[in-house]
């Protein structure tokens, strides 16, 4: 895993900042363990152990498998490298940042289970795609769908003479299943102007605890929070959490059009058809909209 000094690496640094989570990593380096087994080794409750393990998983450091009714934890990385700022990532680069409200999509094709909600309640009726056309969708702070995609048009605010060196997209996302299931993987694919950037596998749809910013009106088993994902497109390829997910480079995308089309969805041939949830400002654990940033020289 490759880390750097940008905010997208913070979940990993935070996951490594706890003595209990470091001990979990040391234990898993010897063999896989169930939550019950880890709880006994650590001398803490299974509930607290699960919270530690979920944070490690959200940071991309471990994964789960099932053996009968037991959830088994495995390390998913064998080394971590930290890249300090270089010329391309230094303050000499200017940047253009655009926040993308989740309800301001310009095209969509979704199938149930699906829906939208704002800070006060559901928008229209859930599981009826026609409400994705409701004018109130502009106020949506969370959207979810089992199949299909949503597409956004994003403005290109580069100044004349500026050359794009890197593009990042940050968003809190998760899978989608009726109620919730923390072990429900989904392959979520990102494209920009018809060019595939890559696919990220969401580990599940989480409702084990209420999201930090999720409104109190939401049902307890409603999607409560997701995983903060930062996709980076550089001259070396496309990356998420320090792992290269495709060979698409920033050079494959330039010159960028004046209106970029960003599509997020589940490909028809995806191995894990687990749906998609996108959290905006006011829902989940990160109080922000989707954010696209262009770094240029």
Task: Characterize this entry briefly.
Helices cover 14% and strands 37% of the residues. The protein has 297 residues and is mainly beta. Strands 6, 7, 8, 9, 10, 11, 12, 13, 14, 15, 16 and 17 form a 12-stranded antiparallel beta sheet that branches. Strands 2-4-3 form a 3-stranded antiparallel beta sheet.
Describe the overall structure.
This protein has 297 residues and is mostly beta strands. It has two domains: 2-81, Arc Repressor Mutant, subunit A; 85-296, Sandwich (Jelly Rolls). Helices cover 14% and strands 37% of the residues. It contains five helices and 17 strands. A hairpin with a 2-residue loop joins strand 3 (62-67) and strand 4 (70-75). The protein is globular, with a radius of gyration of 19 Å. Residues 86-90 have low confidence and may be disordered.
CATH first level of the largest domain: which class? Answer: Mainly Beta
- The CATH homologous superfamily of the largest domain is named Galactose-binding domain-like
Structural class of the secondary elements?
mainly beta
Compute the separation of the termini in Å.
27 Å
Q: Count the domains.
A: 2
The topology string of helices and strands comes to: EHHEHHEEEEEEEEEEEEHEEE
Give the mean pLDDT: 91
Please give a handful of descriptors for the protein shown.
three-stranded antiparallel beta sheet; Jelly Rolls; mainly beta; 297 residues; globular; Arc Repressor Mutant, subunit A; single chain; 37% strand
């Amino acid at each position: 895993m490759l880390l750097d000094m940008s905010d997208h690496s913070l979940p990993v640094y935070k996951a490594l900042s706890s003595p209990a989570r470091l001990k979990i990593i040391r234990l898993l380096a010897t063999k896989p363990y169930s939550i019950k087994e880890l709880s006994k080794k650590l001398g803490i409750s299974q509930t607290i152990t699960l919270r530690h393990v979920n944070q490690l998983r959200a940071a991309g450091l471990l994964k789960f498998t099932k053996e009968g009714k037991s959830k088994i934890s495995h390390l998913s990385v064998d080394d971590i490298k930290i890249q300090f700022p270089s010329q391309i990532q230094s303050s000499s680069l200017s940047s253009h940042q655009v926040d993308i409200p989740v309800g301001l999509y310009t095209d969509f094709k979704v199938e149930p289970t699906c829906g939208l909600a704002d800070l006060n309640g559901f928008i229209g009726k859930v599981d009826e795609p026609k409400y994705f056309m409701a004018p109130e969708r502009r106020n949506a702070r969370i959207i979810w769908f089992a199949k299909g995609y949503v597409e956004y048009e994003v403005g290109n605010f580069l100044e004349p003479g500026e050359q794009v060196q890197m593009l990042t997209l940050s968003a809190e996302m998760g899978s989608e299943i009726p109620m919730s299931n923390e072990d429900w993987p989904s392959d979520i694919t990102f494209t920009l102007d018809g060019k595939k950037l890559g696919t990220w596998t969401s580990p599940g749809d989480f409702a084990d605890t209420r999201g930090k910013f999720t409104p109190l009106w939401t049902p307890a088993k409603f999607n409560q929070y997701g995983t903060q994902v930062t996709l980076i497109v550089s001259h070396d390829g496309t990356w998420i959490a320090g792992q290269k997910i495709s060979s698409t480079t920033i050079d494959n995308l330039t010159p960028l059009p004046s209106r970029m089309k960003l599509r997020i969805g589940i490909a028809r041939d995806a191995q894990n058809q687990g749906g998609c949830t996108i959290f905006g400002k006011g829902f989940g654990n990160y109080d922000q909209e989707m954010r696209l940033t262009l770094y240029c020289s």
